[in-house]
Design brief:
Mean pLDDT: 96
Strand content: 15-25%
Number of domains: 1
Order of helices and strands: HHEEEH
CATH superfamily: Hypothetical protein
Number of strands: 3
CATH architecture: 2-Layer Sandwich
Number of helices: 3
Shape: globular
Helix content: 25-40%
Low-confidence stretches: none
CATH topology: Metal Transport, Frataxin, Chain A
Radius of gyration: 12 Å
CATH class: Alpha Beta
Structural class: alpha+beta
Length: 83
């Protein structure tokens, strides 16, 4: 099982401790580019499909909040990446 598959499986399980670094690793492995928005806002943009996941980088803790995990899962399902 590849690192990307492990991260997808872990994200789909809705963990309470999914780290920002894990999300960045997962999204970049799916060919999304990380762009800075205003403040702590970040965008993961796919260069081909131009689909965008807008999310705030958590701080000071580097763990995603439950709604951010939910939003990331919903986005990846919409994109056909997660079943």
């Amino acid at each position: 099982m590849s690192k990307r598959e492990k991260l997808l499986k872990r994200l789909a399980s809705r963990p309470a401790d999914f780290a920002w670094a894990e999300l960045v690793s997962l999204m970049t492995s799916l060919e999304f580019e990380l762009e800075k928005a205003s403040g702590s806002g970040r965008k993961f943009v796919h260069p081909v499909t131009e689909s965008v996941l807008y999310i705030h980088e958590p701080h000071p803790a580097k763990v995603l909040k439950s709604y951010q995990v939910r939003d990331a899962i919903h986005f990846l399902k919409k994109e056909g990446i997660l079943p």
